[in-house]
Structure formats: C-alpha cells, structure tokens
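Long-time lurker, first post. I've been practising inverse folding by hand and with some scripts of my own, and I keep getting stuck on stretches where the structure tokens seem ambiguous. Below is the full token string for one chain I'm working on. Before anyone asks, I'm not after the true native sequence, just a reasonable design that respects the backbone. If someone could post their per-position residues I'd love to compare against what I wrote down in my notebook.
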C-alpha cells in the first residue's frame, strides 16, 4: 500500500504590507480574498476556469516593472504585492471607461439597473464620466429564445457565459466569433439562440452574466437579478475525492 503524500508547501508573502501565509499553487487573487483584501474583477468567477481577460485585477509586484493579473499569478515565497495605488486606480478606471465607450450601456433603461457588476464597478472606481468617444455600435438583441434574451449592446465579453455553458453545463452552446471590438457571443454555429439544438435551457449563463447582456425575458427596468451561489457548490460537488 503506497502512502499518499502531499506536495503542497506553505508560502509566506506580503500583500498591502500584511504578512500572509498560503499554500503553494494559490493565486494572488485567491489569497487576497481569503484575507479580506479586495481586488476588483469582472471576468473572474469562483467555480469557473481563470481566463484573465478583463485585466481589472492587475496588481503591482515588487521588483517587477509590469503589472500582473492577480487571478492568473501564483504566489511565490517572499513576494511583495500591492493591490491599490494611484497607478492601478488609473488603469482600472480606464478599463471600465473603455467598456462603457465600446458598446451601448444605457443603465437608466437597462433591466439590470441597480444589479449590474459593471455599474457597481464604475461606482466603486468613482467614475462620473467617460473620457473616450462612445462608439455607439449598431448591435442586435437576440430575442429568439422562449424565455432568455441576449443583448449584445450590454455585453463586456467577459466570457463567463461561454465558460459556464461548456465547463459546468457541458452543453458548449455558447462561443465567441470575431476579433477585438467586433467579437460577439454566438450560439452553436452562429444561429439564433432559440434555434439551438444544444442549449438545455438551464439558464446558468444568464445567472453568471455580470451585466444586462443575458437576462430573462419579461423583466422590466431594474428587475433582473442574478444568482451565482450555485457555481462554487457545483464545482465542489464535482471534485474528485482521492
Ligand atoms: S441556457 Fe444553459 S445550455 Fe443554454 S446557452 Fe445558457 S448555459 Fe448553455
Ligand atoms: S453575455 Fe454576459 S456573460 Fe457572456 S460575455 Fe457578455 S457580459 Fe459576459
């Protein structure tokens, strides 16, 4: 009988002048959250794979001239991390302003008004205006599904919906087409959502969407709320116990 050995090591690092111990393999974001240190995120969601796309969780690491995505950077022994600084705040504000400028986020008439992670992030970062010219693209609303709706105008391309559909529901209905600002969420081979042969109608994508891009049909302004608590639970239940 072979003994089960653990390769997990204890690591000590400093985050915002606070000495912290963690396990090897943990990311800066995980450790920060375990220690009640807030690092803003939009694409990250506990229970989904890390994508590192929104770049809001960028942090400074001592002796490194570049910024690092906290969600995708593992802690190392002796690391010194700073999660807030004037430079980081400026970058984070710029990212959120660009998201607002890229599509048509008209919060006052959005079904997610008051329950939107993008709107909350703008408030948190004290954004009271957008410094970039709005693109005002002409984007469609996919209303073809019986009880769910995709409004491309509100999409920030966080890909939470793509990941939950593939990784948790296993349907792989959602994906992305195009590049850069022309990227868009699609269903199957770019068909109307209502015609999808693979969508199970589980609604998981709607619940993980941080904005008013994925919503339930029939909701009026400010009525759409999301529930994400199911994700860490489902992930935990699926873990292989050795
Ligand atoms: S409802 Fe479920 S199966 Fe359909 S696109 Fe959303 S997550 Fe995928
Ligand atoms: S539809 Fe929602 S969850 Fe999907 S990429 Fe757009 S903002 Fe993210």
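-- Answer (accepted) --
I ran through it position by position. Result:
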């Amino acid at each position: 009988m072979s003994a089960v050995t653990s390769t997990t090591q204890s690591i000590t690092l400093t985050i915002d002048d606070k000495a912290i111990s963690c396990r090897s393999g943990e990311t800066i974001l995980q450790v920060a959250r375990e220690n009640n240190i807030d690092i803003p995120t939009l694409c990250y969601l506990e229970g989904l794979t890390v994508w590192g796309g929104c770049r809001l969780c960028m942090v400074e690491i001592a002796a490194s001239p570049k910024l690092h995505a906290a969600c995708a950077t593992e802690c190392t022994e002796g690391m010194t991390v700073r999660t807030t600084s004037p430079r980081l705040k400026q970058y984070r504000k710029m990212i959120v302003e660009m998201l607002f400028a890229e599509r048509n986020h008209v919060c006052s008439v959005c079904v997610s008004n008051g329950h939107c992670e993008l709107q909350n992030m703008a408030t948190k970062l004290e954004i009271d205006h957008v410094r970039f010219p709005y693109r005002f693209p002409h984007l469609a609303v996919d209303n073809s599904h019986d009880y769910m709706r995709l409004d491309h105008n509100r999409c920030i391309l966080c890909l939470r919906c793509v990941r939950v559909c593939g990784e948790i529901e296993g349907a792989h209905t959602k994906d992305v087409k195009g590049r850069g600002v022309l990227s868009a969420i699609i269903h199957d081979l770019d068909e109307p959502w209502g015609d999808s042969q693979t969508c199970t109608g589980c609604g998981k994508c709607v619940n993980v969407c941080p904005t008013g891009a994925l919503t339930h049909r029939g909701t009026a302004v400010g009525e759409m709320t999301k529930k994400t608590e199911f994700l860490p639970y489902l992930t935990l239940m699926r873990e292989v116990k050795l």
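A couple of notes from the structure itself: The chain has two domains: 10-84, 89-227. Residues 86-102 form the longest helix (17 residues). Happy to go over any region you disagree with.
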